[in-house]
Every structure is written in C-alpha cells, then in structure tokens.
Design a protein that fits this description.
The protein is α/β, with parallel strands linked by helices and 421 residues long. Among the domains are: 4-101 and 196-224 and 388-409, Nucleotidyltransferase, domain 5, CATH 3.30.420.40; 228-369, ATPase, nucleotide binding domain (Nucleotidyltransferase, domain 5), CATH 3.30.420.40. It is built from 14 helices and 17 strands. Residues 23-226 form the SHS2 domain. It comes from Halobacteroides halobius (strain ATCC 35273 / DSM 5150 / MD-1).
Length: 421
C-alpha cells in the first residue's frame, strides 16, 4: 500500500530497472465491475485503451464492500477480459478502488520545533512527522470505527497518504528543498480501511493473477483527479452517489481535507420499487432506469414512493458535510457524480435544498453534475468512458498512473505534486 513513508523510502532507494507501461484500474462497484486498461509513459501522458463492464450479482456487495469473493472474482475476470481484448495488451499490474462506510479519511496536522533552525529541511524530519501523523490518524480511525460498529480493536490499514500542506514559521511552502526555519508544520490526509476489506481485494488480485500495486480510496481518487487551479484556490465538494454507498470528499485549503461515506445510494431506490410494486430486484432496476431516462409516461406514483428515500439521502449528505466542515466555511462548488446521481429528480432536489441555511456556506452553493469528460488528466482514446457513472473508473485510471511516481521522481517533486494537485 502506498503511503508517505514508502514514497520517501522508495524515492531515495529507487531502481532504474522498473518500467511500467500498462496497468489495470479495477472499480468493483455494487452494480457493476468496471475494468480500465491505461497506458502511460515517463512524462505521465496517459491514455485509456481498454474498457470492460460486467453487471454484479445482487449478493456480491454490501455497503460498498465485497461480500462474495468468489463471484466478484468471476465478474472481475470477465470485465478485465473485455478490457484487455479491446486494448490488445496483457498488463501485469492492477490498482483497485475501495469504498464503503467503514473507509475512513481525515486530515491530521502536527507541529515540530526544529533545534537547528538555520539548517535546511532534511528528509528525516519529514519522515518523523509523516509517521506521527499516520499514528494519530490511525487512532482516530479506530475511534470512529468503534463508534460506528461498537467493535473494539478493529484491524485497520493505511491505504492512502497525501501531504496537504507544509509550513515553516507560518509560511506555506510547496517545495521544502532549501528552506530554513524554526517551526515546521505538516498537514497530511490519511485514509484507512478495515483489514477484512483490504484482504478481500488482495485475494481478488492474487486469484486473478495480477500484481496489486495499489488500493485507492475512490472519493480520494476523484478529488485528486479534479484538482484544478480553481479547486486548489477555492476548494470543492465531490459527492459520488453509487449503487451501495454515497461517498463525499472535501477539497479545502489547497488539498483533500476529509472523506465521509454512508450506505444509502442507488440500490435503496431499487429496493423501494421492488417492495412497493412486488418486483424482482432486476425488474425494479430496469424500472428505475426507465424512470430516470424519461421512458415512462406516468411517473407521479414513483415520485411519491421515492420522495422519502431522497429526503433521507439529502439529510445524510448534510450530516456528512456538517462533520467535514468542522465549523469552518465550506467551498461553494459541489460536484455530483456516480450512477445514482442520474436518478430522476435527485439533482433538482439537491439544488432546492436550503443547505446554506444550516451549513457554513457563504451563500447558496453552485451544484454541477460531474461527468467523465471533466476528468482531463487522462485521454479516453476509445471514447467509452462518458457520463457521471464513469467518473470513478476514469479517476482510478488516472491515479493508477501516479503510483509510478515513487520510483521515478525525487522526494521534493513528489511533495510538490501532492500539495499542488
């Protein structure tokens, strides 16, 4: 798993023999498994050259986590086979996305008074502070899981670590090299997941015959992929409404400050339709899609049936945003994505909510539907990744190429990339 310490260690002990050119990004969603083959070079110019999508069985996932490993392996194999046949290559490495209500991401800040303020900043100082932020974040993740599950000593593991900000004597610096100062402050964003979830993904990669080079939290991947100059300066909120979970990421103060996930998303609407109309889940899903794409003549009854579910979703989003805000102002830009965001009436319903009255917005936020075409860091050469439902796999594909940076770039460049993107 990639973390700050492995970045530091691998960069200073790199091997020039590593030469990655193709990689698979695997998005194991509640409704679909999506596989992307991405091609990239040393300049990080990357292209998507293969794509596969296979529908999941209804028992395969629970709350965004794998619950049936054997069948997920089967579906993943089918999606990867479709993608690799299209790409006409067989990558050896794979990166897998992870989501779910028990995946915890938080920002941690630590301060260190340097004994020799005139000495230039050294790697060891960053090593020590990075390690301390991870220890602090680990304890916080365990406390949150205890509150969520009631289970003590849940085994968790670091999956992502990104430096948000470095300050020396109160001044923000984007490249620590050559700087001197007394008071060093490091802010890092760390993501942890339960070991049982990570173990399932490691098993899937192993059984599929690929080298697992990274597990990436999906809201983290999306947030990193839309990190434009505007997002860096003014911040943004990303809300990914999938099949099993709604994942929220906060970009603020030039970096990713936190993520929240909860188990209410597209499948909840499907279950409501199945229950009320006495349909199978598959037929209910088809009805939901027809409803969302404007293919039904009469929608009033469905409007009424889904109203309470939509209100619960809106309330869940507002609770998550309140926790992420921590009494500080929230960014004015909100991006919606994910297959669940296309439900008829959902986007309009969020726009009509008066969130700015109960949450720390300066004014009514600007809400936009994010599409895969908005992820510009990777070129979709095959033209298959379009719409809100493909934001996650395209973002995973882009971030999958970034993992190579630990071998190819020096630490100061790496820190600048993490801070500036």
């Amino acid at each position: 798993m990639l973390n700050i310490l492995s970045i530091l260690n691998n960069v200073f002990n790199k091997s020039d023999s590593e030469d990655y050119q193709y990689r698979i990004a695997l998005d194991i969603g509640t409704e679909y498994v999506k596989a992307v083959v991405v091609k990239f070079d040393e300049q990080y110019i990357c292209e998507i050259i293969g794509y596969g999508r296979v529908q999941q069985s209804y028992s395969n996932m629970d709350g965004g986590a794998v619950s049936n490993i054997e069948d997920v392996i089967k579906k993943s194999y089918e999606a990867i086979e479709e993608a690799t046949e299209m790409a006409e290559v067989e990558p050896e490495e794979i990166v897998i996305g992870i989501a779910g209500e028990f995946v915890k991401g938080d920002v941690t800040t630590l301060n260190h008074k340097r004994l020799f303020s005139k000495r230039k900043l050294k790697r060891k100082e960053l090593d020590n502070l990075a390690q301390e932020t991870q220890k602090k974040a680990l304890n916080q993740a365990r406390e949150e899981l205890l509150a969520d599950t009631g289970l003590d000593n849940v085994k968790v593991q670091l999956i992502n670590s990104s430096i948000v900000e470095i300050k020396l004597d109160g001044y923000k610096i984007t490249n620590p090299e050559e700087f001197q100062g007394k008071n060093l402050e490091l802010t890092a964003f760390n993501t942890f997941a339960p070991l049982v979830h990570i173990g399932a993904l490691e098993t899937i990669a192993d059984r599929l015959g690929y080298k697992l080079v990274g597990i990436i939290a999906e809201p983290f991947a999306i947030a990193k992929s839309i990190m434009s100059n505007e997002a860096y300066e003014f911040g943004a909120i990303v809300i990914d409404i999938g099949g099993g979970t709604t994942d929220i990421a906060l970009i603020r103060n030039g970096g990713i400050e936190g993520t929240k996930m909860f188990s209410l998303a597209g499948r909840a609407f499907t279950k409501t339709l199945a229950r009320e109309f006495n349909l199978s889940l598959q037929k209910a899903e088809e009805l939901k899609i027809a409803y969302s794409t404007g293919k039904l003549n009469e929608t009033e009854e469905i409007d009424k049936l889904l109203k309470s579910d939509l209100n619960l979703l809106y309330e869940g989003i507002e609770v998550a945003l309140d926790k992420l805000a921590q009494s500080e102002a929230l960014p004015q830009k909100i991006y919606l994505c994910g297959g669940g965001s296309s439900l008829n009436g959902l986007f309009d319903g969020i726009q009509k909510r008066r969130m700015y009255e109960n949450l720390p917005f300066f004014r009514k936020p600007d809400i936009k539907l994010l599409s895969a075409e908005d992820i510009t860091g990777v070129k979709d050469r095959i033209g298959r990744l379009t719409g809100a439902e493909n934001v996650t796999p395209k973002s995973l594909a882009l971030q999958a190429t970034m993992i190579q940076e630990v071998y190819e770039r020096n630490i100061w460049d790496k820190l600048s990339v993490n801070i500036g993107r």
